[in-house]
Amino acid sequence: MVYAIVRAGGRQEKVSVGDLVTLDRVTGQAGSTFKLPALLLVDGAKITSAAEELEKISVTAEIVENLRGPKIVIQKFKNKTGYKKRQGHRSELTRVKITGIA
Questions:
Q1: What confidence tens digit (pLDDT) does each residue in 61-98 have?
Q2: Number of other CB atoms surrounding residue 8 within 10 Å
Q3: How many domains does the chain have?
Q4: How much is the pTM?
Q5: Which residues are within 8 A (CB) of 62 and not within 5 positions of it... i.e. 6 or more apart?
């Protein structure tokens, strides 16, 4: 089993070929491809973590769709002062398909 740990959107994701992963928004249209930097590669019993060897590894991904995350409601309230504040937030996300680890 071949899988890689990649840096994506400020986080690390474990990916293998054919996986669908949701990341922070990536610029590009549906169908375009891009590369993700590998931090670790596991190929069966062989584990690659050296930086000079990982520079040769390319993890390619294809953008499937751009979407938005669930709405998060932030409410603040202070008793007896009349202070109320309500704020909402939705994350901009991109769903990608991993097409190759080489």
A1: 999 999 999 999 999 999 999 999 999 999 999 999 99
A2: 20
A3: 1
A4: 0.84
A5: 31, 32, 33, 96, 97, 99
